[in-house]
Amino acid sequence: xxxxxxxxxxxxxxxxxxxxxxxxxxxxxxxxxxxxxxxxxxxxxxxxxxxxxxxxxxxxxxxxxxxxxxxxxxxxxxxxxxxxxxxxxxxxxxxxxxxxxxxxxxxxxxxxxxxxxxxxxxxxxxxxxxxxxxxxxxxxxxxxxxxxxxxxxxxxxxxxxxxxxxxxxxxxxxxxxx
Length: 178
Known about the structure:
Layout: E1 3-7, H1 15-29, E2 34-38, H2 43-47, H3 59-69, E3 74-80, H4 88-96, H5 102-106, E4 110-116, H6 124-136, E5 140-148, H7 151-156, H8 162-177
Helix pairs in contact: 1-8
């Protein structure tokens, strides 16, 4: 089983990236096969790519899709709240890899979500919006969710509050069995 963890924003130094790294650390500790994608790494690549155009002229994106996305069996998206929803860059990233080999990339792949926000809701609405995109791509949605509201406070107190890491461990256990 291969899980792909996706830090769902291209904003540099984000709290989303910090949660994604913590998740990867727990996956490693639990000996779960996984890979990590940081959308920050795609900012320049996608800026050269015209939206909704085939990837045939970009061997780097084709290689990524063929060697990382398609072989991944499960995805965990860590998604921050942007204006009451999810980042537009995440949608652009999804769209880029849905033009070529969409079914192989997304169809019937299992997906879980972790919501991150500065506010009190942990991006519940943004996750709901993103689930609609995943349903359209015929992805299979894991029914449990992890939300981290007040993310700055959560990260500041991470080591003192083991329940946050426990939430990620429980997600991994259940999602691995899903």
